[in-house]
Amino acid sequence: MEQKTKFKEKLYLFLVMAFFYAPILYVVVFSFNSTKSLSHFSGFSLKWYEKMFSNREIVSSIWYTVLCAVIATAVSTFVGTITAIGLSKSKKTLKEFVLQVNNLPMLNPDIVTAIGLMLFFTSLRIKTGFTTMVLAHIAFCIPYVMLSVMPKLRTLDPNLADAAMDLGCTPFQALWKVIIPQIKPGIISGALVAFSMSFDDFVISLLTTGPGVKNISIYVYANVKRANPTINALSAMIVYVVTIVLILINVVPAMKEKKKEKVNA
Question: What is the C-alpha separation between 177 and 186, in angstroms, rounded?
């Protein structure tokens, strides 16, 4: 009876995993197809990747995507980390209020956040384009950075900074040499999550960008109904990047912990 139950559980898990990952695997496999067919694999080829990188519009969308993600990640990581450190020293009432406000962008549907940002830029008569898209990405990335950094700050001794300053450190040295190294894993995790969220964002980017500025998601949306296999290659590129980021978030910290355990043992 127990064996049947375990078998059913494994079967359900397999079906769920297949439901989620089979379409992704399908896109990746057919990005290497030698023909335009999306139903018959004729042979292995890299020509769609070559055509993708020779297409100026696609290269432009990749450039905007990467540049926006890098800028948004850098700014949101800095602002989110400093804000989280400041909140850790603030009064409980203020801390709880700011954290609740910080959670709103993550709890709201993307379309609500996108419309809100679009109306904000429109009301201020700011011309939409790459700058507004970057500002929008920074706005929704900061909460994820703070969410990653705050748990690390809670594990620290609240008197750590004071002890460092008693030993001769300036406030900046106490922050840079004592606090930051202790919460570094949280900062790195927050930065990787921010990069991933910015890289594959669609709804917010679509409503906050302007003419001539497209990221990868917007380009794919505009061309997905055409029989264009380069879309498969471009979509596969997103899968590769997101997969790498997820590996860095989940696998690398686990490997570091195992190494520490071996050293301590």
Answer: 16
